[in-house]
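Worked example 3 (structure in, sequence out).
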């Protein structure tokens, strides 16, 4: 056995502290095979759950990453720019091995980082960046290397999933469910990255790189948040045989890829419809193997540290592979998104209760070629000045629906922008597939 690998660890928050704890309790596959040669964080004097006094302290993560005695730089700072990016680049320029849990960095700069790896002989591993302790990165990159992946369907954000599950189970509105998520530690004080879909969009971009060897600009992926979903929407979806879940989707459609993140109606028969609480799940449909399901805790100190340790053990065992399964020259950055994919949708339109309102809404949909499949209005809302109209559409083009929604929003009787949610995994074939 060679000399122990010398680790530099930057970022000593929940995940970093969990990693130090896990390393202190290392099993036989790690014992005697590493030393911690330096750590870096925001402030060495902060109270922590783990003792960092035995390790050399670096105020600047970039200085730690550049130290010649460091073999493996572990980045747990987070963020697509600033110290995290600069430190990772510094390590890669010296040909070091880098392990990171930073989904934003990988989604926005993954192609450039892979080029640095190849140019200087380093390596990049990121099992912890998507779905925490669920081994989906290695599953896609190695386990399905010989398969043709056609669809990836996932719940990638435990905060959003917990909020929607709680809204349904306890009949709470969004604000109350968010407060409960924050009280339980499932949501940050500023939850915007989670509830807006931005966190899931970064993760989906990474999965796209692994599944389709295309790492897109995350901004090109259609995104919606869960903030406007109400208990009425959840009840209406259930009445129709669906549950509302925060769904991230990649699907091959001929030469194009459909990519989207946001709340969607799932049939009660779909496996993701029963993934509740803060759990993550990733379903992969691939030929010739069929469907694989990865599920488990997607965040937290223990699961994320476990994923980092898996990358470290692979390094120790000499199992180094291209970060996205292919070289930089084979990893395109242009995603041919099927932005006008056909599908069915659920709409909620909050309107003034006056004659002709439903006819006006129907007219705007029909003018864009969007046909109504079903209509519902709750009985308790009758005789009120403001009422919600619930609609589902027949198969329609997304651009046509967007145009119809914009027109409905301009009606004098419409009180707020309509809420539109896709009906995912619908059995009705699209024109491209039928």
């Amino acid at each position: 056995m060679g000399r122990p690998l010398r680790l530099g660890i930057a970022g000593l928050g929940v995940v970093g502290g969990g990693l130090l704890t896990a390393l202190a309790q290392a099993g036989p596959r790690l014992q005697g095979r590493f030393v911690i040669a330096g750590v870096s964080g925001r402030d060495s004097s902060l109270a922590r759950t783990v003792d960092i006094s035995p390790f050399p302290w670096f105020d600047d993560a970039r200085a730690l990453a550049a130290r010649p005695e460091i073999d493996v730089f572990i980045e747990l700072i987070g963020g697509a720019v600033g110290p995290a990016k600069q430190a990772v680049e510094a390590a890669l320029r010296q040909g070091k091995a880098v392990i990171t849990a930073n989904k934003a960095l990988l989604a926005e700069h993954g192609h450039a980082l892979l080029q640095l790896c190849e140019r200087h002989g380093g390596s990049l591993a990121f099992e912890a960046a998507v779905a925490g302790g669920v081994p989906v990165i290695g599953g896609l990159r190695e386990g399905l290397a010989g398969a043709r992946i056609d669809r990836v369907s996932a719940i990638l954000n435990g905060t959003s999933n917990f909020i929607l599950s709680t809204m349904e189970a306890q009949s709470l509105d969004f604000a109350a469910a968010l407060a409960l998520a924050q009280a339980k530690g499932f949501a940050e004080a500023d939850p915007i990255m989670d509830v807006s879909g931005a966190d899931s969009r970064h993760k989906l971009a990474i999965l796209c790189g692994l599944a389709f060897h295309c790492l897109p600009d995350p901004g090109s992926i259609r995104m919606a948040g869960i903030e406007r979903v109400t208990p009425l929407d959840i009840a209406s979806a259930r009445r129709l045989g669906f549950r509302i879940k925060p769904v991230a989707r990649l699907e091959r459609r001929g030469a194009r890829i459909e990519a989207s993140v946001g709340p969607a109606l799932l049939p009660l028969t779909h496996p993701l419809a029963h993934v509740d609480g803060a759990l993550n799940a990733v379903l992969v449909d691939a030929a010739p193997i069929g469907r694989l399901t990865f599920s488990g805790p997607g965040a937290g100190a223990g699961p994320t540290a476990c994923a980092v340790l898996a990358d470290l053990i692979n390094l120790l065992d000499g199992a180094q592979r291209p970060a996205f399964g292919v070289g930089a020259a084979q990893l395109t950055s242009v995603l041919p998104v099927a932005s006008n994919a056909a599908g069915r949708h659920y709409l909620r339109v909050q309107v003034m209760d006056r004659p002709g309102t439903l006819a006006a809404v129907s007219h705007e949909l029909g003018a864009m070629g969007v046909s109504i499949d079903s209509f519902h209005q709750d009985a308790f809302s009758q005789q009120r000045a403001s009422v919600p109209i619930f609609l589902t559409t027949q198969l329609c083009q997304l651009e046509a629906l967007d145009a119809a929604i914009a027109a409905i929003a301009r009606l004098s009787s419409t009180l707020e922008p309509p809420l539109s949610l896709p009906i995912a995994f619908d059995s009705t074939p699209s024109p491209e597939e039928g």
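Notes: The chain has a mean pLDDT of 91. The chain is about 35% helix and 25% strand.
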